[in-house]
Amino acid sequence: MRPLDQKETLMVFNKLKNYIGGNIRVLLERPDGLYCFRLQRDRIYYVKESIMKFAANLPRDSVMSLGVCFGKITKGGRFLLHITALEFLHPYCMNKVWLRESAEQNFMYGNHVLKSGMARISENTPKYAGLIVFSSKDIPLGFGVSAKATAECRHADPMDIVCFHQADIGEYIRNEEELV
C-alpha cells in the first residue's frame, strides 16, 4: 500500500466533495484518531494511521487489503465509490433523497429513482449533485446523482428520473458470483 499521489488525492477528494462537501476534514480527523487514504493496486482504502504504521513493517506484496475499501480507480482514470464507503459518508452528506417503500426494492435492483418513487428530497439540491439514498425509515441504501434540482422535482412528471443510480447495498448479492 502506498500513499496517494497528488492527482489521485485530487480525484478522490473531488468525488467525496460531491457527496459530503467540506466535511472531508471531519472524515480524516475523527475523535478516535487520524485517518488516511492508501492505494493498493487500483483500490483506495480508508485506514486509521496507527494501523497503517503497524502495516508498514509488512512487505507490500503480502498485504491484500487494509482498512475499508472506499472505491476504485478505473482503467479510464476515474474514481468510483464502492458501497462500503456508505457507512462513513452518510452521517456527513449534504444532499439526501428518501424513497417510498414501493421504490426501495426497485432501487436495490440497480434502477434509477423515478419521481413517483421519491418520498422527499433535501432542500436546495442542485442538478448533478451527489446524493445519499435513504429508505423511508432513514436507512442508507446507496449513492446516486441528482438528475434534477429540488425545484425541478416539484413540477416533474411521475415517470421522470430524479436520481441516477450509482451504487446500492444490493450489489453484494448481485455480484456474489464475481467475488467467489
Portion in helices? 25-40%
Report the structural category: alpha+beta
Task: Give the count of structural domains.
Answer: 2
Give the strand content.
Answer: 25-35%
CATH architecture of the largest domain: Roll
Number of helices: 8
CATH C-level class of the largest domain is: Alpha Beta
> Taking all residues together, what is the mean pLDDT?
90
Can you offer a commentary on this structure?
By secondary structure, this protein is an alpha+beta fold. The protein folds into 2 domains: 2-89, Nuclear Transport Factor 2, Chain: A, CATH 3.10.450.220; 95-174, Roll (Archaeosine Trna-guanine Transglycosylase, Chain: A, domain 4), CATH 2.30.130. 29% of the residues lie in helices and 32% in strands. It contains 8 helices and 12 strands. Strands 1, 2, 3, 4, 5 and 6 form a 6-stranded antiparallel sheet that branches. A 6-stranded mixed sheet has the order 8-12-11-10-7-9. Strand 3 and strand 4 form a beta hairpin. It is elongated, with a radius of gyration of 17 Å. The two termini are 24 Å apart. The mean pLDDT is 90.
